Amino acid sequence: MTDAPFDAALAGIVADLPSDLPSVRDVDDVGIGTVSSVLLVDDEVSRHGDRAEEFISRAADVVRPGGLLVLSALAGDGRDHGPRKVVGATVSPELRTEVRTYDAHGVEHLMLHRGLSVHRLEKHRGADGVERFLVVGRTAISTDERSARFIASLPFKLVTAAVVCRDAQDRLLCVFDTFRRHWTIPGGVVDAGEDPRTGALREAVEEGGVRCAAGPLLGVFNTVVPDRLLMVYGATPVLPDDPTTLTPVTRQPHEIGEVRWVPVAEALELLNKRTRWQVEQCLEHPGETWRE
User: Fold this and answer.
1) What is the arithmetic mean of pLDDT over 47-76?
2) Is residue 187 predicted with pLDDT exceeding 70?
3) Contacts by 57-61 with C-beta closer than 8 Å and gap 24+?
4) Reported confidence tier of residue 79, pLDDT bands at 50, 70, 90
């Protein structure tokens, strides 16, 4: 947060803006692309709740290419503090109408998502003692530029995939991760251009040394740090009587120290705590989505 109070910082910005600033109540009456700047500094963005993006879009539409949109937003951590290790949402959420707060990343995302570049982003304390973000955004010069900013604003979510591979004796394929120093199941990051199920089957061969046939999707797990989806598939060995399947040998000794077929009950004791919980959910509640 900067030392300058909100009102002083705003006055400095306004002094440099062109004079054709419509008030927010007039935005709907202003023609598209007809003004050089719009000023929204009465926390309108926060007060519009889930309609903040729609509100910013309407304001940005009246600004000429390369023009400025100045806004304030109430500051907060902007994070979701929902419970973890619970089933993911099963019903669509209601539209939020309450006043929303934002962290710096949330404000920047809000601007980029509507095709605006962030020219200035500061946090100040107002005369009322409330912290606010003061943001100056610049509209795109072209539709290509606007599209590029929109794409840049999209979330990056890491996708990983794994297999719960069981043989005819109901044994689970387990691998020892030499980096993390614990037992887990074959899995890893899905490659570019690769679908999750194919990635899971590839990891079974690379880490477990066993060719598998994929079964159903047993579970989807969403973690926050990093923002990651883990998709776990059921699987069975393609060649159950092949010697390399009966006694698998790791093909990636730099990552995997040992591979074993372990009876499921024993495997749940062998696996690291997190993977144990994931496998338990896959076996007890197949097909469910979980927040971790």
Assistant:
1) 90
2) yes
3) 57/114, 58/27, 58/28, 59/24, 59/27, 60/114, 60/115, 60/116, 60/137, 60/139, 61/32, 61/33
4) low
Top CATH class, 158-291: alpha beta
Rounded CA separation 76/173 (Å): 46
Question: In terms of DSSP H, where are the helices of 43-161?
Answer: 44-47, 52-61, 104-113, 143-153
Query: For the chain, where do the domains classified as CATH 3.40.50 start and end?
Result: 6-153
Beta strands in 34-191 (DSSP E): 35-40, 63-74, 86-87, 117-125, 131-138, 158-165, 171-177, 182-184, 187-189
Distance of CA 109 to the CA centre of its chain: 12
pLDDT band at 81 (very low <50, low <70, confident <90, very high): low
Higher per-residue pLDDT: 79 or 108: 108
3-state secondary structure of 220: strand
Give yes or no for a contact between 279 and 286, defined as CB atoms under 8 angstroms apart: no
Report the CATH fold assignment for 6-153: Rossmann fold (3.40.50)
What is the b/e burial string over 78-100, where b = at least 16 CB atoms within 10 angstroms of the residue's CB? beeeeeeeeeeeeeeeeeeeeeb
Q: Does residue 259 contact residue 247 with C-beta atoms inside 8 Å?
A: no
Rounded mean pLDDT, 244-265 = 89
- List where CATH 3.90.79.10 sits in the chain: 158-291
What is the spatial distance between Cα 8 and Cα 24, in angstroms, rounded to a whole number?
Answer: 21
The rounded distance, in Å, linking the Cα atoms of 258 and 119 is 53
Report how many helices (DSSP H) and strands (DSSP E) the chain contains, helices first: 9, 13
Give the pLDDT mean for 27-32. 72
